Every structure is written in C-alpha cells, then in structure tokens.
Amino acid sequence: MRAILPAPLCPKSGSSILTDILEAAPETAETTPERTVVSMRNVSKLFSNGTLALKDMSLDVRRGEFLSLLGPSGCGKSTALRIIAGLGAASTGVIDWPSSRINAKGLPEGDVGFVFQEPTLMPWASVFDNVYLPLRLNGMSKSGARPRIMEALASVGLSDFEKSYPRELSGGMKMRVSIARALVTKPRLLLMDEPFAALDEITRQKLNDDVLRLWRETGITVIFVTHSVFESAFLSNRIVVMRARPGQVCADLAIETTGERDANYRTSEEYRATTDRVSRALQEAIMLGAQGQ
Amino acid sequence: MTDAVQTANISEAGTDSAVAIAVARTGTAEKFLRIVIPFVMVALAIGLWQLHITVNEVPRYIMPAPGDVIAALYTDWGTLSPSLLVTLRITFLALAIALVGGVGLAIILVQSKWIELAIFPFAVILQVTPMIAIAPLLIIYMPDTQSALLTCAFVVAFFPILSNMVAGLKSVDHNLLNLFELYGASRWQTLLYLKLPASLPYFAAGLRIGGGLSLIAAVVAEFAAGSAGKGAGLAFRLLESGYRLNYPRLYAALILLMVTGVAIFAATSLIAWLLLHRWHESAMKREN
Ligand SMILES: Nc1ncnc2c1ncn2[C@@H]1O[C@H](COP(=O)(O)OP(=O)(O)OP(=O)(O)O)[C@@H](O)[C@H]1O
Ligand SMILES: [Mg+2]
C-alpha cells in the first residue's frame, strides 16, 4: 500500500496538542485509533546478554506530532525506535498500527521512513540512486520514480547534486540525502535516531530548520531521538523523557509556542523557559536512572 | 624568480585562472613522467644486461644478449606461439571458472552459517595443501593432461577469489542491512543491490591475486606434469629449451610468460579501476 498523506496539520493554527489530548480523552476506543499512528503497549526488550533495555514502555504517537524522545545515553531510545521500525522484535508487549495496513511482518507497508545517526548511504551509488533505493525495492522503475526523487531532493535543497557520489558531499549534505531517501516513499511516520548528533552547531541548526519546515509542509508524524535538550525544545511539540535501567517513559511534556519557531525563537524568553522545564525533567530522569542502577 | 614572473604575466586574468594554469601544468608533467619512468627503467635494465654480456664476454650458451632473444622470438615464433596459446587458454579458462565458482560458492556460503561450516573445512584443506604436491595425482585421475593442468590452475586461483568474496559479502554495513530490512527487501534484492556492490573492492582484490596465480599455477603444473607434443605450453618449451641448451629460445619463452603476466596484471587492475574509481578509496585520487 502506498501511503496517502494526511492533510497537512499545522501546529500553529487550530488546536494545540494539549487541547488535542483534552479532546481525545473522552473519546471511545473506536475513534482513538484514527488519531494514533503507532502505539507501544508494555513493550519490554531483553537482549541476549541479559541487558533489560526497555521495561513495560507504553507510548501513543498521535498523527501530526513532532515527538522527541529525550534521555541519557543508554536509556533505550534507539532500541525503542528500532522496535517501532520493526528492526528487532520486542521481547514482550505489542506495537500497534491502528490506521495502517500491515504486511506479513507486522509492519505498515511503506509507511515508515528511518534516518540513522550516520547518513548510511551506499558509497557506490549516486545521490539519485541512493534516494531511488526505497522505490526500487518496491519495484518502481527508474523513470517512473524520477519525479518523486527529484521532489525529495528539492525538498532538502539538493536538486543540483543528483549525479554526485556520497564521497563528494559534506557531512550535512549526506544527512540531507538520507532525509530525502526517508521522505521519498511519502511515509506517514518519520523516525530519526540522533540524525544530527555528529554535525557542527551551525549545520545542525540549519537542518533543524529544514526538518521543521518539512514537517509543517507535509504534516508527517516525526519521532526524533536526541540527547539534546535544546534541539528537542526547538523542534518538538511533545517531548517524551526516558529514564535508564530500565528504559521507561518518565515524563511526557507538551511544548507550545506562541510564535514561529525561527531564529528569533532560539533567543526568546519562551524558548529559555521551555529548555529549563525540559532540563529539569531530564535531570529527574537521570536521577531515577542512577537510583535504578 | 620564475614563479614571480609567471604570476605577474597572468595576473590580469585573475587568481582563479592562475591556479588553473598552474594545476594543469603539474598535471601534464606528472602524467608524462608516470608513463615515461617505467619504460626508461626497463630500457635501462636491458641496457645493463647488454653491457654485462659485452664487458664480461658471456658466451651465448650461458646467457644470450637481448638481441639474440629478440631474434629467437622471431625465428622460433612458429614453435612458441602455439605453446603461448595453450598456456593462455589454460590460464584464462581456469581464471574464468574460478571467478564463476568462487563468486557463486561465496554467495551460497554466506546464505547460512551451517552451509559455511559444512564446506569450509574442505576449502581450507585444499587451500593449504601445496598444489604442486597434488599435481601428479591429478595427472593420474584426470582424463588428459590438459584437464589436469586446468584443474591445478583453477584450484589455485579459486581460493583467493572465494575467501575475498566471502569476506566482502560479510562486510556489509549493518545499518545498510537494516535499511534494506526496513523497506522489506527480498533476499535477492539485498544480494543484488547491497551485498554484491559492497563486495566489489574485495572482488577486485581477489581478481588481481587470482589472475596472477592462475598463470603461475598453469606454468608450475606443467612443470610437474610434463606435457609434450601438440598440447605443450610455454613451461614445456622452457624445459625443452633448457635441455637442448637453446638459451635464446628459453629466454624468449620466459619473456612471453612475463609479458602475459604483466598483461594480466594490467587487465585486472583496469577492471578494478573501472569498478571502483567512482567511489572506493582504493581506486580514488585524493585531492585532500
Ligand atoms: N544488540 C545489543 N545487545 C545487547 N545490549 C544492547 C544491544 N543494543 C543495545 N543494548 C543495550 O541496551 C541499552 C539501550 O541501548 P540503546 O542503544 O537503545 O540506548 P540509547 O538510548 O539509544 O543510547 P545513546 O543515546 O547512547 O544512543 C544499553 O544499555 C545498551 O548497552
Ligand atoms: Mg542510540
């Protein structure tokens, strides 16, 4: 099934996420799935070496959300993201996709894009062919896929680099190719695992702006793993803070802004208040993790 | 001094064009030297050879002069060329079978660790056993000398290709494997679009080693097996000329073998370059 993009949800206009929750609360079980893209129910993950990476983690991801998973290193953020993507099964618990068609492996067909911490490009293939990959695996011809590939490349500002090879690109450009590849299938859910951790501050801010713009334009749902309070506070309208040992959700913060999230926002009082709030939540999570050790 | 004058002359055209001109100059000069130096060195070596013969008055039944060898190449071409063809045929046939077999078996081996466990002992045993020790047996078991030689050359060229390909197919970036899994790639798609391209550098290494070894094995096996008559390769001509003290012809046969070896090396290097120059470090010209 090819994903049909939902109508763009603009986080600024209409209801805020908080009122969404308030509205959603009295709804019956029949209508809730419409709003939920994916839900984790009591998911635990025990690795074969005895590490309990996740314990009874539950999380509902609602459509159109920009959700950041924030937590100390080793708390299971990547593990949670990989389980959602179907890379490695949960030991117990279920991943539910209420409004997607599920394939034989229990995954929603073509509905998920994944951006790894590293660009993870095929060095032997041009930028064009790297972005073509998901469509090629779906059996789409190169000429048929061309408009979509060029659209995806344009959306990350790399239209002129279709013929380049990964080694000819900078770190930030490689990351953009990786994002274009994740977007080319027009997924409903975009999973990003610390995508910009290895980049310098300026490039990272630029890519943050790009991702935010893409999110606004496409109405895509994003789960963004990060260990940066500032990055998550800038990007998200919901931050889920995780604790370590065992990995669990320990805070769920709605982030609202009155204005645009732009350069001005970065220096605003509002942003500072948000980062303070998030920092405190993270501090608590770190303390809980230390006690659990 | 010269630099300053040059810069002054082209300063009107701007800094960019100055840089371009400077780069182009060193570029052509380097290219020229790259081609010329190896030839000059070989010519020098031939000159020293001639000098040694002349100064020490070495008789030609001990060591022929370069001119004698060239003359032998010309006069004995009728005897040498069929032998060259035999050796070439064995070498390339063995290499071709080793390529198909090595790549094919590597693909099968990496499908499951059980298959690998079952086959690997044989691979290792055959690889560590000196080929020259099995050659006499192969002569007995094989229907004719030609197929025995072919088998020897194949066995020797096969293992570097196999082990390189196995290493290559296994060295795929696990994040890329995850990516393929995420998009529901079939086994076949993963092999075709990911594992095979990712193992090209290893394939190129295996091809280079296998190409060189198949010629060496074809010659060594013929020494051990001792073919004669119509099916005689260059190794037999070497032995025969040695017995007859026809050293110019022996040297001519040797030079044909050397040229063949160099040609195989050049061809495999060219193939490696064609496969890798766009993307792999080993074949790339770094600019930083
Ligand atoms: N394949 C594995 N085998 C065993 N243990 C693992 C494996 N992968 C992760 N772990 C363990 O599970 C825990 C969670 O790991 P995970 O990679 O999810 O953390 P993370 O929150 O993404 O950390 P980081 O911010 O450093 O990326 C860690 O304690 C880690 O040691
Ligand atoms: Mg991680």
UniProtKB/TrEMBL annotation, chain B:
<feature type="transmembrane region" description="Helical">
    <location>
        <begin position="148"/>
        <end position="169"/>
    </location>
</feature>
<feature type="transmembrane region" description="Helical">
    <location>
        <begin position="90"/>
        <end position="110"/>
    </location>
</feature>
<feature type="transmembrane region" description="Helical">
    <location>
        <begin position="32"/>
        <end position="51"/>
    </location>
</feature>
<keyword id="KW-0472">Membrane</keyword>
<dbReference type="GO" id="GO:0055085">
    <property type="term" value="P:transmembrane transport"/>
</dbReference>
<dbReference type="GO" id="GO:0005886">
    <property type="term" value="C:plasma membrane"/>
</dbReference>
<feature type="domain" description="ABC transmembrane type-1">
    <location>
        <begin position="84"/>
        <end position="268"/>
    </location>
</feature>
<feature type="transmembrane region" description="Helical">
    <location>
        <begin position="215"/>
        <end position="239"/>
    </location>
</feature>
<feature type="transmembrane region" description="Helical">
    <location>
        <begin position="251"/>
        <end position="276"/>
    </location>
</feature>
<keyword id="KW-1003">Cell membrane</keyword>
<keyword id="KW-0812">Transmembrane</keyword>
<dbReference type="InterPro" id="IPR000515">
    <property type="entry name" value="MetI-like"/>
</dbReference>
<dbReference type="InterPro" id="IPR035906">
    <property type="entry name" value="MetI-like_sf"/>
</dbReference>
<keyword id="KW-0813">Transport</keyword>
<protein>
    <submittedName>
        <fullName>ABC transporter permease subunit</fullName>
    </submittedName>
</protein>
<feature type="transmembrane region" description="Helical">
    <location>
        <begin position="117"/>
        <end position="142"/>
    </location>
</feature>
<dbReference type="Pfam" id="PF00528">
    <property type="entry name" value="BPD_transp_1"/>
</dbReference>
<keyword id="KW-1133">Transmembrane helix</keyword>
<comment type="similarity">
    <text>Belongs to the binding-protein-dependent transport system permease family.</text>
</comment>
